[in-house]
Specification:
Layout lengths: L1 E5 L7 H13 L5 E5 L5 H13 L3 H22 L3 H28 L4 H8 L1 H16 L4 E4 L18 H11 L1 H5 L3 E5 L2 E3 L5 E3 L4 H13 L3 E6 L20 E3 H9 L7 H9 L4 E5 L8 E4 L8 H4 L5 E14 L9 H12 L6 E3 L3 E7 L4 H8 L4 E14 L9 H8 L7 E4 L5 E7 L3 H12 L9
Parallel strand pairs: 1-2, 1-7, 2-4, 3-4, 7-9, 8-10
Antiparallel strand pairs: 5-6, 9-10, 11-13, 11-14, 12-13, 14-16, 15-16
């Protein structure tokens, strides 16, 4: 069995849906479970609908519902050729749109958008897309069955970022999904949505649909988990900066997590962690180019012969733009206990997250994303130390599991950056990430020269 996850980009129009259908048909012999996001653009409309309700602009909210209705009707009219099938699609759309309209009326009556109501709005996209995709597959000769995610994904009651109850989910998937697959039918499940113990709809937060797929893969003991995106996998660099950047063929979960933290947003690491920790290979594939090998994410390379000896030292070059560097200096740090705690309590109190940290006996320097609260931070920190804030910086990072095992790689990195002023260097305790802070305007050039120096012409294909 495999789990195939299709995002909104692969469901945005009739052409994309038909390509998705062909990809699923090509893997029928692998006994797939299909997980889908909302149709492309629908989730954004639902967020806008929610914002309209929060500002008590119900006319705008109802307008968004009308747009969603028209979008889904047009999409199914373009995708389904059979009149009877289009009639079935209309029933599915009408039922969900009617529920949304009733929800808006209820919110309007109580004059409050509760966390529970917000989840009911935002989860509507997957509750519409999954049964409609099931209908499209069925009408094209693929035996399939819609499975409501609320039957499978039990969560806690933390609306907006609910936590899956893995033990219960595994039991439900074994009872509900596995028999369907064994019977030769393809289950189609909406992502992002779950159900609390009291029966309320919940959503899984950032990367929620991917998390649904990962948890299902874990629960059924899938042979692999495939994420079908609009990119060729995890690339060795941003193609907007390095147009010839190629996908990394193999990468560890630790490297993928570092890259996500550093700005490569192909997958959120928390969303794939359940599958990776269970030893299930995770593949990132391009639905526009199904024959492309994409990227495989593994827990480790221990099972890959010669991975340490044969792999290049660097898998990918990542970066972050528009950062701040905050330098905190105080002689009171020398030999003192509790000073760093006081410094970081200020960040916590203001609600700011730190990215990179470097310390010495009397100095701590951190980076963080640009924020309009920086003056507030500066004022509070000045009460305990001398503070200097440098704006307009960026971070360039080299990531690779072989970084600590390759003599001379540091020389190559810093030689490549000889013409750039490096303001700060951090080397993560994981040993797979070396980051340099440079002027924001130097980020693009730094990424290019590092890619030129460190990534083989094969583009990291066997990294």
């Amino acid at each position: 069995m495999i789990v195939m996850k299709f995002g909104g980009a692969s469901l945005k129009d009739a052409e994309a849906i038909n390509r998705t259908r062909e990809i699923i048909a090509s893997r029928i012999d692998k006994n797939p479970v299909v997980v889908v996001s909302a149709f492309g653009g629908i989730t954004d409309m639902l967020y806008e609908l929610t914002d309209a309700m929060l500002s008590r602009r119900t006319d705008k909210a109802r307008g968004k519902v009308s747009l969603i209705y028209e979008y889904c009707r047009r999409l199914m009219d373009e995708t389904l050729s059979n009149k009877l099938s289009r009639g079935k699609a209309e029933v599915i759309i009408d039922e969900n749109i009617s529920r949304l309209k009733k929800l808006i009326s209820g919110i309007e009556a109580v004059e409050e958008v509760s966390a529970r109501s917000r989840d009911m709005i935002l989860g509507s996209g997957e509750l519409i897309s999954a049964p409609l995709i099931t209908l499209v597959l069925s009408c094209n000769g693929i035996g399939c069955e819609y499975v409501d995610p609320r039957e499978l994904i039990l969560t806690d009651s933390e609306h907006g970022a609910a936590n899956p109850s893995l033990g219960e989910i595994k039991e439900r998937c074994q009872q509900r999904l596995v028999p369907v697959v064994v019977g030769g039918t393809v289950p189609v499940v909406g992502g992002f949505v779950g159900c609390s113990p009291d029966g309320a709809l919940t959503t899984l937060g950032r990367g929620g649909s991917d998390l649904t797929a990962s948890v299902i893969a874990l629960s059924i003991g899938a042979d692999s988990l495939e994420f079908w995106k609009d990119v060729d996998g995890i690339l060795a660099a941003d193609p907007r900066i390095v147009p010839r950047a190629r996908p990394v063929r193999r990468i560890t979960f630790q490297e993928a997590a570092e890259l996500a933290f550093l700005g490569a947003k192909v997958l959120h690491p928390a969303s794939i962690q359940p599958a990776v920790e269970a030893g299930i290979p995770v593949k990132v594939l391009n639905f526009n180019r199904p024959s492309s090998p994409g990227t495989m994410i593994l827990e480790s390379m221990d099972a890959v012969p010669g991975s340490i000896e044969q792999s290049p030292p660097i898998s990918s070059i990542a970066y972050k733009r528009n950062q701040l560097m905050v330098n905190v200096f105080s002689t009171r740090m020398l030999g003192a206990r509790g000073f760093l705690r006081r410094v970081f309590e200020v960040f916590d109190r203001i609600g700011l997250s730190v990215d990179h940290i470097a310390t010495s006996e009397v100095n701590v320097t951190v980076t963080l994303s640009a924020t309009d609260r920086i003056r507030e931070l500066e004022k509070e920190l000045n009460e305990v130390a001398v503070v200097r804030v440098e704006e307009g910086v960026g971070i360039v990072s080299v990531v690779g599991r072989n970084l600590p095992h390759t003599p001379g790689v540091a020389r190559r990195i810093f030689s490549a950056l000889a013409d750039f002023n490096i303001k700060l260097i951090t080397y993560g305790g994981s040993g797979v990430n070396l980051s340099m802070v440079v002027a924001d305007g130097d980020v693009t050039g730094a990424v290019r020269v590092l890619h030129e120096e460190l990534i083989p012409e094969t583009g990291g294909e066997d990294a």
